[in-house]
Amino acid sequence: MTLGEGGTPLVPAPALSERTGCEVWLKLEGANPTGSFKDRGMTVAVSAAMRDGAEAVVCASTGNTAASAAAYAARAGVRGAVIVPEGKIATGKLAQALMHGARVVALRGNFDQALELVLQLVDRNPIALVNSINPFRIEGQKTGAFEVCDQLGEAPDVLCVPVGNAGNVTAWWKGFREYDVAPRLHGYQAEGAAPLVRGAPVENPETVASAIRIGNPARWEEAMDAFTSSRGEVRAVSDEEILDAYSFLGEREGVFAEPASAAAVAGLLKYGAEGRVVCVLTGHGLKDPTTALSRAAPVMPCEPSIEQVERAMLGDG
């Protein structure tokens, strides 16, 4: 079950390179069919579910998994169902899940509670769970590591990646090891949702970066093994730092990524790195238009005359 996922651009980041002193590249995972890296794993997970005769697919999600699962379920012609934390999902992602025909349940709780419930659900019904605890998801997502090595002609020195449920960093490390390379993995969590940094689950995670608003990552042990084995690190960045990086990407690099993606750049800007660095931008900025509009300059009204247009477009304000 494919929508043509993968093969996303790897673009140089001259403004970031100048500011950090590194050779920085951006892996634009928002160029996948539903606008996030989740499609890499979802194509494999849903294909496996169809092979095994599942009657439906289900996931718990902060948004991107819901959008991807709904799209691939629609492609496969089976029912898709998603559980999301009520009021905690970005508008663009919710719209995607609904437009792909999924049944969307808004849970009065957080992501970690939603995942616990879907685990119980699949035990009681003939449906497939397509969260990142599904091993097929990891197999698909590891292809990002293959692509970066092919695109650069060699492995980067450092990979900077946002960390939420920790499936992506687990998958990238698996891909690098299968390519027999070992770049340092630098993972970044939001301060209000940083269980790996704290060393303990966060009961009520909070951050503007909704895609990584997770307090008890499903791939905790694998992710920590990846950081240790790669001689890397996992650290926290504030919401303010994430939003500054989010604006920097849009205004200086011409790249519109969602706030969670900007955590990778925020971490690089805050903590630094050496050599050739790839930042994984996990989702497109249109996933979360509300945050974008809250950060952007206002639209300028204008009367329909050339003088007024000149003043509006060329003047100081």
Overview of this protein structure:
The chain has 317 residues and is of the alpha/beta class. It folds into 2 domains: 10-36 and 137-294, Rossmann fold (3-Layer(aba) Sandwich), CATH 3.40.50.1100; 38-134, Rossmann fold. The chain is built from 14 helices and 10 strands. It has helices at 14-20, 38-51, 64-76, 91-99, 111-124, 135-141, 143-152, 167-178, 195-198, 220-229, 239-253, 259-271, 289-295, 306-314; strands at 10-12, 23-28, 56-60, 79-85, 103-107, 128-129, 158-162, 184-190, 233-237, 276-281. The strands form 2 sheets. It has a 6-stranded mixed sheet with strand order 1-2-10-7-8-9, with helices on both faces. Strands 5-4-3-6 form a 4-stranded parallel sheet. Strand 3, helix 3 (64-76) and strand 4 form a beta-alpha-beta unit. Helix 3 packs parallel to helix 4, helix 7 (143-152) crosses helix 8 and helix 8 crosses helix 10 (220-229). The chain is globular. The model has no long low-confidence stretch (mean pLDDT 94).
String of helices and strands: EHEHEHEHEHEHHEHEHHEHHEHH
CATH topology of the largest domain: Rossmann fold
What is the number of helical segments per DSSP (H or I, 4+ residues)?
Answer: 14
Terminal residue distance? 51 Å
| Low-confidence runs of at least 5 consecutive residues | none
Overall structural domain count = 2
